[in-house]
Each structure stands twice: as C-alpha cells, then as structure tokens.
Amino acid sequence: MTSVDTERALRLTVNGVPREATVPVRRLLSDALRHDLGLTGTHVGCEHGVCGACTVLVDGEPVRSCLVLAVQVDGAAVTTVEGLVRDDGRGGQVLHPVQEAFRECHALQCGFCTPGFLVTIAAGLEGRDAAEEITEEEVDDLVGGNLCRCTGYANIKKAVRHAAATMRDAR
Amino acid sequence: MKPAPFRYADPRSVGEVLEVLAAEEGAKVLAGGQSLLPLLSMRLAAPAVLVDLNRVPGLDAVEVDGEGVRVGALVRHAGLLGDHDAARVQPLLARATANVAHPAIRNRGTTVGSIAHADPAGEMTSVLALTGGSVTVASPSGERAVGWRDLFVGPLETSLPGAAVVTSAFFPALPPRSGTAFAEVARRKGDYAVCGAGVVVTLDEDRRVAAVRASYMSVGLVPEVHDLTESVAGSPVEKADWAAAGALARTLVEPDGDLHASADYRRLLVGVLTERTLADAAAEAAAKVTGE
C-alpha cells in the first residue's frame, strides 16, 4: 500500500555534493535549499512562479524552485547559483562566464533577482551551439521569464551577449 | 505564503494512484504543479492529500500516428513543443505550447495537467477543444475516453469524479488542405493571455474556403469552438474577407471583464486576433493546396 506521509527523508545532489534532509512534505524546494540546506543564494521573490528569482536547475533544466515540492526532487541533481563557479584547475575557483559578464556589464543593482537570471542564462547558453552568434530573439527569450525591477534589462541583455561571446571564444 | 499542511503520496502505478484517491478524503492529483503550487501557496486551495503522478512509469510518451497525437500525463510542455512529429501531424500543439508561460515553467508543467486544471485562460484546454480532442480517464471502474465538451464544466472545474485521473490527452490530426495559427495578447511576454485565439482554416480543392473554426483563451467560462464558416464560405482564399469573420466572432463570444481587461476590450481583441490569425492560417492552407 502506498504510504501517505507528512514528512519525508530526502537524498539529493546539490551542486555536485550529496545532501540529506528530513522535511515536511509541504516544504517548497526553494525553502528546503535555503532553510534545510543553508544555501541562501537562491532568492524567493513572488513565491508563485511569476518573478523567476528562485530559478534553479533540476537535472540540468531551469525550473522555479517555489513551484516544486522538495519531496519531488528526491534523488535528483540540483544546481543553484552557488554551483555555477568552476574549478580553475589550480585548486581555486573562477566565476561562470555569465557571472563574469554580469560584473563586467553592470547587469545588477540590488541583486535580488540576479541568482535566477544567472542560472537561467547559464543553462540557456550551455544548451545552445556556442559557435552560432546569439540572436536578439534568443537574448529576449533567455531573460523574458525573470523580473528585474532595477536595471531595465538593457545591461542584463548586454551581459547575455557578452557571455555568449566569451563562451564562443572559449570553444 | 506557504502551502497549508497536507499529506503526500507518490504511488508507482495508476492503480495505486486510484487506490489513494479512493481511500483519502480531499485528495488532489499533482503532476507538473505549475498551476497547483501557486494555488496552494496563495491558500486558494488546501487539499488534504496530494497524490503525485511523477513517479508513475509509462505516462511520459508522445505517440504520433496518422490519426493524431496522444500525449501522456507526464509529458512536459517543453517536450511537446520540441516534438517535430507531433507538430507535423497537429501543428497547433507546438504553436500553442510556445505560448505557455516561460521556458522554466514549460520544463515542469504538463500539457495534460493544464487540461485537467481546466483554466479558461489556458492554451491547451482551448487547443483540445479546437482540434475536437478527448482525454483518457482512469477510475476504479476502468478506463474511458471523455470528449472535450463533456470534460469542461466551469473555470477550474471538470466533470471527473474524485477517484479519477487523466492519463493522456488525444489531439486529432489536422485535416487535409488546412492551415492553423495561434496568437495571444498579454501584458508581458509569458503572462496569461488577456485574450488568445487559435484557428483552423480548411479549403476545398479549388482553393475556396470550406471551413473556419476558432477557439479563444480568457474568453468565457469554458473553452468553446466557434464556427465562423458562414462569413467567408466559398470565397476564393485570396479574396476571403477575414474582417467579416472577425466581426462574426465578436458577436458570438461572451467575454467577462476583470482587473486585466474589460469585456469590451476582450471582444475587440477577439475580432482583431481572429482576422489576423485567419489570414495566416489561410495562407498556410493555400500553400498546401498549391503544392498538391
């Protein structure tokens, strides 16, 4: 008989690290990441799927972590903004090209929406053919699902083009 | 806000799903959750038990043949959008799913869940109606097909009894010599449409307009299909008066006003979107007849 629970023990891989937590079944993934696993890089904005601030990657695909229950990702691999940094091959870490581009292009002001933009754009750029020049339509699609109240998007779009160019050169 | 407390089950078969639904008072099926989770977080819904379909094997297939496209209950909008076979047999599927919210929502949200949610603002409810589709419903008494007219009762309300789950949706193939188009007007890209329209234009062998059907989003309480053929029937496709079809559509719909748009504005949009989409759909149909 299927068990009907109020609490569940979870095992998942977060940013490459196996993690465990016991959570109430109503715990949103966004809250599990922040409260249970201490990863506060994922920001919670509207909490009903409109703003995109809480976007994380589940098995490599961008999803709204406020619209997924933590119990639903038991066994999955989750990437948060903390997981975008890469090893530099000398024992240290370097920022993801999208993070570098945000800094370079001044693509953030208050920073609240930034984690959601970063993971969405990073997954989008990694999922496309880096050799192809990015089109304005692609840029609009990559930023269209996230709300930013500070920048007016111009610098965020500039950062997307900048990161795409960096990733093209780095092929 | 956070969802009110509930209990949770993630059964491994449709049979187990039905057992839990039958045994538990106030149980609700969870698939993609992209409509249900907001309702829970805003406390507009507070089911006692959530029965998660996501671990049931065999529900994630898109099956395509000459008759049409069958979409399993766990197929995500993004999966359907990227299915070229499905788009070839019924082009409205890709055209409509491209308008469903944002990529991050489409990665998680399911097409069948969107239909079972029965939101009159939803794209896929409207496409199910426009294509004359049906859903397959599993219940303790067995499986049966339910046509779209018998499925939708009101906003967010279907005719399905408590211990029932929609396991797939079937969208019939586009008829020969036909073209389709789909368009929305939304405040921001990816938002719920203030008004949306999907249309099918079918020509006869002499490139005259034989049939025109349209279905709208955010207009009326349940999805409806409007036959606009009489306004343009028999016209050569190049000379058809699509504005007349738009004018007819405006007289057939009964939109409501809300925070986002007045009823009059929605009625205006029905006319504009009808005229615009019919011209596109007709051009597509005409290209096929020429190519025959």
Give your account of this protein's structure.
The complex is a heterodimer of chains A (171) and B (292). Chain A has helices spanning 29-36, 97-104, 114-126, 136-143, 154-169; strands spanning 7-14, 17-24, 55-58, 61-64, 77-79, 86-87, 93-94. Chain A is α+β, with helices and mostly antiparallel strands and 171 residues long. Chain A has two domains: 7-83, Ubiquitin-like (UB roll), CATH 3.10.20; 86-169, [2Fe-2S]-binding domain (DNA polymerase, domain 1), CATH 1.10.150. A five-stranded mixed beta sheet of chain A has the order 2-1-5-3-4, sandwiched between helices. In chain A, strands 6-7 form a two-stranded antiparallel sheet. In chain A, strand 6 (86-87) and strand 7 (93-94) form a beta hairpin. The N and C termini of chain A lie far apart (52 Å). The model of chain A has no long low-confidence stretch (mean pLDDT 96). By secondary structure, chain B is α+β, with helices and mostly antiparallel strands. Chain B has a domain at 178-291: 2-Layer Sandwich (Enolase-like, domain 1). Chain B is built from eleven helices and 14 strands. Chain B has a five-stranded antiparallel beta sheet. In chain B, helix 7 crosses helix 8 and helix 10 crosses helix 11. Chain B is globular, with a radius of gyration of 19 Å. The model of chain B has no long low-confidence stretch (mean pLDDT 96). Chains A and B meet through strand 4 of A and strand 1, helix 1, helix 2, strand 3 and helix 6 of B.
The helix-and-strand class of chain A reads alpha+beta
Strand order of the largest sheet of chain B: 4-5-10-6-7
SSE-based structural type of chain B: alpha+beta
Total domain modules of chain A: 2
Shape assignment of chain B: globular
CATH topology of the domain at 178-291 in chain B: Enolase-like, domain 1
Can you summarize the main beta sheet of chain B?
5 strands, antiparallel
Provide mean pLDDT of chain A, rounded. 96
Corresponding CATH architecture of the largest domain in chain A: Orthogonal Bundle
